[in-house]
Amino acid sequence: MNRQTLMAYLALASPLVLLTCFLVYPVVDVLGQGLFFGMGTPFYDVVASPVTQRTLIFTLYQATLSTALAVLLGLPGAFLIARLRFRGKSVIRAGMIVPFVLPPIVVVVGFLQMFGAYGLVDSLMMTITGSPVSVINLASGLPGIVLAHAFYNIPLVVLMVSASLERLNPEVEESAELLGASRLQMLRRIVLPHILPSLLASSVLTYLFCFTSFPIVLALGQGRYVTLEARIWYAFRYFDYGEASSLALIQILVTLSLAYSYVRLGRMRQQGIAPTSTMKQVGLRELSAAQIVLILAYLALLAFIVAGPIVAVVRASVYDPLTKSYSLDGFGNLLSAGTGGGLVPLINSVFYAAMSTLFAVTLGIPLAYAHRGSKNPTATLASTMTLLPLGVSAITLAYGLMRAIVVPLGLSANPWPVIVVAQTIIGLPFSARSIEIALRSIDPSLLDQADLLGASRLQKLFFVELPLLAPGILVGGVFAFAMAIGEMSATLFIALPQNVTLAVAIYQNLSVRKFVEAGAAALVLVLVCLIAFLAIDRMTGRASGGTL
Amino acid sequence: MSVRMELRGLEREFSDGTRVGPVDLVVDRGELVTLLGPSGSGKTTTLRMIAGFIRPQEGSLLFNGENVLTVPPRDRGIGMVFQSIALFPNMTVFQNIAFGLDMARWKHEDVVARVEEMSDMLRIRGLLHRHINEISGGEAQRVALARALAKQPRVLLLDEPLSSLDPQLREHLQMEIRRVQRSLAITTIYVTHDQTEAFAVSDRVAIMNEGKVVQIGPPEELYESPRNEFVARFLGSGNVFSGSVEEVHERTILVRVNEHQFEVHGQEQVGARVCFTVKPEDVVVARTVSSDAHPATVLSVIHQIGSHRLVLDLDGTQVVSLLTDSELVRQLSEPLGQRVALRFDPESAALVEPCNG
Amino acid sequence: MSTSQYPTRRDPRTVILGLAVIITVTVAAYAIWVWPRGPKTKLIVYTYDSFMAWGDEPETIDSRVFGPFMEQYDVEVQIVRLQTDANDVIARLIAEAENPIADVVIGIDNILILQQPAQSVLEPYTPSNIGLVNDSLIDSLDPEHYVTPFDFGLVSLVYSESKINVTTHPELANLTFNNLGTTEMASSLVTEDPHLSSPGLAFLLTEIAVYDKLLKQDWRQWWSQVHGYVDVRPGWTDAWEVWSNEPTKWFLVSYGTDPAYSYYLSNSTPDTAVAPIYNAGTDYAWMQVEGIGLVKNSPNPTLAKAFIDYCLTSSVQSYVAFNQWMFPANDEITLPAAFSYALHVDDVHILNTLLPRSEIAANLTLWLDEWDIIFSS
């Protein structure tokens, strides 16, 4: 094996090595400890327990409902974004991604302020009906949970499906039209099969997120509704590592199978792809009045659900419920450098997120290459492992990293490298996927030409492949950045006060009733992400969500 | 610089059962040989085997007597223009042409000199600063060619380079390619399915069918003396008849084709099954029947520039005739289905092998 | 033609090198910035995130409280407020058990210490000045001295007088679970998830103690009655927010010192009042005692012990009232005037005596599971 091939193998293997060392190993270590050596409830008892079974069923159930709602509400949006020409589309697209990256705690706050009792919606209803008490409370119980999950995931559906729609070759549709297909038939026979892979893929991703969801369920479920992840937290808190590990194992098995199906579905996407220079779009003027009304109604609903909580966050950053007055103290606190002040978490957030984005992108490139080769079992393995971070219990990973990496390596007093690692792992699925899609659209004859013209592997990568992959790399990088900067669970557990990030600071502030500070930090988080996405959308000039 | 290329028994079987080869071919220094054939005949595969993107399972490939099958594509000294042209979209014309030179780490002044030289040769000097998405199809072609030739390759491979261009441009570029190739005297293999194109640019043409080279030779030779029925049909050199030999004369034989007897130049044994071709322009059509003419019916008339094609029905066999007499053609066009008499000179008929009867 | 017209290509190797240099420099800069400094010996104290955070100047509280100790022993004391609560602090200590970096832990309460894993990371230690602490307090927390009392408080229902008061609802004077069992009252109650919050757990234990020990009835009855109406929030802040925002929420499970805090903030008669559970002539409340303990195999055991001793003295204990809004363990400390509004230990019968530690240790998970079952039905 010559040096070049060896380097190539090493490059391909590095992300897998990272995942194995920092994801698989810690998780296996924790689970092993809990299942085989630890104190606590044995596996069999946990599985047989009716509480577990009921929790599992509920978790699956609410995830199904949430996914269904997200898809139902998201599909029309996907069509609108793909087909309608209107101004400010890129802002809307950028704005849509924001909920996706907010730490759940912020979502909860925003949601409650918007849809909860005495929230914005409720107050409105109360004024309309003249009622002195709460009229409508959408943020509680199962409806609240499902709604909040939908809020989180509608953007995912909209962006993925609209990107797929945009790639549908307009000539295919035109031929069908000429051949006499009615609108309904076209929808059924041409459009639906084309978007089916992205639809299914976004559904699987949504399901994964809802399945492992925890803060939202607890906050809105009011003790009545508990997911698997919540029970894992409960068990951890009472040191029942046997139960925690058993539940985590069940959770991993479910998510593994979901991840696997996502990977298989991802391979299906290939037919009828057009260079996106021509797109079948209509302007607003070309629509009938009835259509416009419907569209506006839908947009209003979407704005409600998606933008509402963000508005609530903005409000929360300046309105202090303690003093019932408006103040900019929150922002002042953000810029101060004292303990509890905002400058340190801000620097930490940006630094960790930047580092992990860098790693996620650098490792995402070989990972994207490894994904190719559909029949190759290593490719499937790599793809499945890449998605694992999305489905592993956050507390399990955090605890595992602590036990297996931080302490043995003597990093207890200075654990920030492991925080960067955890954030990298979470961003990796997105960067890898995004780059992989860009990879597919590279004309192989370009690579052959480069070969013929004498380019070495490195030269080919640098001069031909990377420039062509640039949009995919940018988009993947931005997503990885967003995921990293919003990451809370692992950081929460591992960080020492000097390593605290904005996301964790929000959590901390909330627990000591520093609402405006929390709100201000949340707003900064939202703004950072918004700006990043806007920039990317402008730069790539196309569906940035398309490379999901 | 340029090489003598030899393909000996190159063979490759694919997982779906299709097979290319064994292919035997010799290309002399500075010669332009075209691989011509219908889709799926193995031309592109053969070309890619020469380039090194496909490894043949059998056979050898020699450049100046040296087997290059073990040499990776980048070291074989090959310049190639793909069907999709494949210019690097993120670079300018200059950077595209210079790519191979930059990869070989030439000094910048040398690179500039060579790129300018190539762009002069291909008459694209003014485009050097332009971005790839700002040039037209024909210009792109020339850039691709310049890029392929910049490093002075030993062999030039062209895979249907002009298929995406309109006819006038195509004609013009065919001549450009020919001119450049001749002036550089570079051994070239050209792949196309367009017979006119092949005939326009080549020194020799190799007709391929079902993975094998069926006949190779200068264009005129192929046209005049197609070796078998496939070649004849493919080159449109004519109508193919098959029948059995009834009589043998001094220099001609009489062949019975159904109810008709034709006199054909050549020698065969009595009773043998033979096939012969007659070029459309050698089929003479008259309105009146004569003793050595055979009655046929006019099926259709296709007008072309400078000539007219008549498709005639000779007792079930279709015969194509090329006429230049416009008056006659006009008379025969209205109405269709008129009875005419066709005949041809025995010398115009050529025997072909193999014969499928 | 001048060659400068055409830009040259960059060598990939130089670009990669350049990038590597930039990254290395940035990482190094950050690492240096965060590197735990200190030529001095450092004493590391793990505690929960809101430790001493409720006073006027939380940024300087550490230097004010622990400054004298630092000067006396010439060490740096780092109060590490982990961004979690006490349970997760223990979890972290367990994770670090092979190689502990913390010396002292503050905030382990009387329920948490019942669990073997909590004990497993601590070293029993009886401070030399233990006499400053009341014996009954020590027994309520930990007679084995894994942890020593640091502060304590009472968990009780609080209500806002502007929403309801003794005039509108006379039963408030002697509030029983029965009173709370009506639909109207139950719907107005906000409590915390006992799995995740110590006041929430304290309230559950209150209910269990009253029903099981005083009333001799099945404690699950009351929960079954109210589970569809009571508002359960994950944590105390969430509960407080709901209680504070919604006019229909009257009761909050919170700390008995809330009225004192309310008085302190508004400098007038507080709006918040306490409503401890009443039964047969006596008010009852659950006492939460927070302890300070020595980490097993700590890097600086001698210093740690001295620190624990120090924490019992008035130098530290005098800050407890204003910064923790709990009662100091040191019973010689004079309480601030605001505390006259708080619920005192003398005002109630402590339920902890009814529910022995062994019984809690044995049944806690069972009780929590039962609670889950009731709530998920």
Task: Give a quick rundown of the structure.
The complex is a heterotrimer of chains A (548), B (357) and C (377). In chain A, 76% of the residues lie in helices and 1% in strands.
Task: Compile the SSE list and pairings.
The complex is a heterotrimer of chains A (548), B (357) and C (377).
Chain A: H1 3-37, H2 43-48, H3 50-83, E1 84-85, H4 89-101, H5 104-115, H6 120-129, H7 141-166, H8 170-178, H9 183-211, H10 215-221, H11 228-237, H12 241-266, E2 282-283, H13 289-318, E3 319-320, E4 325-326, H14 329-335, H15 343-371, H16 377-391, H17 394-406, H18 416-440, H19 444-452, H20 457-486, H21 489-494, H22 502-511, H23 515-540
Parallel strand pairs in A: 1-2
Antiparallel strand pairs in A: 3-4
Helix pairs in contact in A: 1-12, 1-15, 1-17, 3-7, 3-9, 3-13, 4-7, 4-23, 5-10, 5-13, 7-9, 7-10, 8-9, 9-12, 11-12, 12-16, 13-23, 14-23, 15-18, 15-20, 15-22, 16-18, 18-20, 19-20, 20-23, 22-23
Chain B: E1 5-13, E2 19-27, E3 32-36, H1 43-51, E4 58-63, E5 66-67, E6 78-81, H2 93-103, H3 108-121, H4 137-150, E7 155-159, H5 167-184, E8 187-192, H6 195-201, E9 204-209, E10 212-217, H7 219-224, H8 229-235, E11 239-248, E12 252-257, E13 260-265, E14 273-278, E15 284-286, E16 294-304, E17 307-314, E18 317-323, H9 326-333, E19 339-343, E20 350-352
Parallel strand pairs in B: 3-8, 3-9, 6-7, 7-8
Antiparallel strand pairs in B: 1-2, 1-4, 4-5, 9-10, 11-12, 11-14, 12-13, 14-20, 15-19, 16-17, 16-19, 17-18
Helix pairs in contact in B: 2-3, 2-4, 3-4, 4-5
Chain C: H1 12-34, E1 42-47, H2 61-73, E2 76-81, H3 86-95, E3 104-109, H4 116-120, E4 122-123, H5 135-141, E5 147-160, H6 177-180, H7 183-187, E6 189-192, H8 198-214, H9 220-226, E7 231-233, H10 236-245, E8 251-255, H11 258-266, E9 272-275, E10 277-279, E11 282-295, H12 301-312, H13 314-324, E12 327-328, E13 349-350, H14 357-376
Q: Can you put this structure into words, describing what you see?
A:
The complex is a heterotrimer of chains A (548), B (357) and C (377). The longest helix of chain A has 35 residues, at 3-37. Chain A has a two-stranded parallel ribbon. Helix content of chain A is 76%, strand content 1%. Chain A has helices at residues 3-37, 43-48, 50-83, 89-101, 104-115, 120-129, 141-166, 170-178, 183-211, 215-221, 228-237, 241-266, 289-318, 329-335, 343-371, 377-391, 394-406, 416-440, 444-452, 457-486, 489-494, 502-511, 515-540; strands at 84-85, 282-283, 319-320, 325-326. Chain A is mainly alpha-helical and 548 residues long. In chain A, helix 5 packs parallel to helix 10 and helix 15 (343-371) packs across helix 22. Chain A is globular, with a radius of gyration of 24 Å. Chain B has nine helices and 20 strands. The longest helix of chain B is centred in the middle third of the chain and has 18 residues, at 167-184. Chain B has 357 residues and is of the alpha+beta class. Helix content of chain B is 26%, strand content 34%. In chain B, helix 2 (93-103) runs parallel beside helix 4 (137-150). Chain C has 377 residues and is α/β, with parallel strands linked by helices. Chain C is globular, with a radius of gyration of 25 Å. The model of chain C has no long low-confidence stretch (mean pLDDT 89). In chain C, helix 2 (61-73) packs antiparallel against helix 13. At the A-C interface, helix 3, helix 10, helix 11, helix 15 and helix 17 of A face helix 1, helix 3, helix 4, strand 7 and helix 10 of C.
